[in-house]
């Protein structure tokens, strides 16, 4: 995106740019994970593995779902890939035909529509409202679905809004989807472990009656274990779908990095309680940012219940300062205050911006000072 590239250019030129546009935690990868990777290198685990992951990794994924969600999987229902993004691409590439439609609630992760188009299908955007917590309305979904609907892409906790999906709301969506036998659900759970409310984690749709054979649950260790650079994602779904994904991976990336797989085994073996300190820090940062944003005239911000982003409505500031739109807001903010945010338009939500609070308290305090000065 233009604003992100401009921020990089300014940093390269020596300017003190604060970047709150990145989608990754600022914490270190846990020590047991790094130690497992080093041990794997020392043990010579540097060869090809099975395309869909080592037996050890598949066993760790199976145990994660059993331990955390009482959800039992067979090895044929699991595929590990070079990042969760590739898993999404492989699933869509394996199943979409020209003219198929993929319903994507907005705001959405920026890559979803592009991946759909790369696969020759049509992204159909289902708008949500801040006043409804950025949750897709079941009746609107019902009106949007057609015989051409092949997939519904759902991402909770959501990037960029931080919304989480209550169980009863998920059930209402599943009831609508169930009436369309050709439609599949892709549940992107990559932020599963980063939530601040009591919303149910894990494979919500796959555990619902009649939905297991129609749901692909995507997950990984990138966000939960501060491992974005390790590029290791995994998915659980019906065996025929996973076999098709396996074929796509076999002719493109082949297996995920063997060392990343060994590291992921260690990551998945850690009790989720290791995140307690991280969540506490993130909650404190979230509260600081939301409190500050809601004190700025022309900005309104919901408190996110998951992930590590806030997604404020900045329309009031855009209008007051005579700016064209949210992209102009971000460009001017970068030029004047050297603060990099992401325009909401990139996520299908004009008039908003995404700000990551996965940064040190001192960085966030400085960033909030720059933002207040810009909006004054």
Automatic annotation (TrEMBL):
It comes from the Bacteria. SUPFAM superfamilies: PLP-dependent transferases. Its EC number is 2.6.1.-. Its cofactor is pyridoxal 5'-phosphate. The keyword Transferase applies. One of its GO terms (molecular function) is L-aspartate:2-oxoglutarate aminotransferase activity. Gene3D superfamilies: Aspartate Aminotransferase, domain 1, Type I PLP-dependent aspartate aminotransferase-like (Major domain). One of its GO terms (biological process) is amino acid metabolic process. Belongs to the class-I pyridoxal-phosphate-dependent aminotransferase family. Homodimer. This is Aminotransferase. It comes from Parvularcula bermudensis (strain ATCC BAA-594 / HTCC2503 / KCTC 12087).
């Amino acid at each position: 995106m233009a604003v992100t590239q401009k921020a990089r250019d300014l940093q390269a030129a020596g300017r003190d740019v604060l970047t709150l546009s990145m989608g990754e935690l600022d914490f270190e990868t846990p020590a047991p994970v790094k130690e497992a990777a080093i041990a794997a290198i020392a043990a010579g685990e540097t060869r090809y593995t099975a395309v869909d992951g080592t037996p050890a990794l598949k066993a760790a994924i199976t145990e994660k779902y059993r331990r955390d969600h009482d959800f039992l999987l067979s090895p044929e229902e699991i595929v590990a890939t070079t990042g969760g993004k590739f898993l999404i691409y492989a699933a869509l590439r394996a199943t979409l035909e020209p003219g198929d439609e993929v319903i994507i609630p907005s705001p959405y992760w920026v890559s979803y529509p592009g991946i759909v188009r790369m696969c020759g299908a049509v992204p159909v955007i289902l708008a949500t409202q801040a006043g409804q917590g950025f949750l897709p309305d079941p009746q609107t979904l019902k009106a949007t679905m057609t015989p051409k609907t092949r997939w519904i892409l759902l991402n909770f906790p959501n990037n960029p809004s931080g919304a989480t999906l209550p169980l009863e709301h998920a059930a209402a969506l599943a009831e609508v989807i169930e009436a369309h036998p050709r439609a599949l659900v892709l549940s992107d759970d990559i932020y599963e472990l980063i939530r601040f409310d009591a919303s149910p984690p894990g494979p919500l749709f796959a555990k619902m009656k009649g939905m297991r054979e129609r749901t692909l649950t995507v997950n990984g260790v990138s966000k939960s274990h501060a491992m974005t650079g390790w590029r290791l994602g995994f998915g659980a779904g019906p065996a025929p779908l996973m076999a098709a994904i396996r074929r796509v991976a076999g002719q493109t990336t082949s297996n995920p990095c063997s060392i990343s797989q060994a590291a992921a085994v260690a990551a998945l073996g850690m009790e989720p309680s290791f995140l307690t300190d991280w969540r506490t820090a993130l909650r404190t940062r979230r509260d600081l940012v939301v409190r500050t944003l809601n004190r700025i005239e022309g900005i309104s911000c919901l408190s996110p219940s998951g992930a590590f982003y806030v997604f404020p409505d900045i329309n009031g500031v855009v209008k007051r300062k005579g700016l064209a739109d949210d992209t102009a807001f971000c460009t001017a903010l970068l030029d004047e205050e050297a603060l990099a945010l992401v325009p909401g338009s990139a996520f299908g939500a004009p008039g908003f911006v995404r700000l990551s609070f996965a940064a040190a308290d001192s960085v966030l305090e400085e960033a909030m000072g720059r933002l207040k000065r810009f909006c004054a």
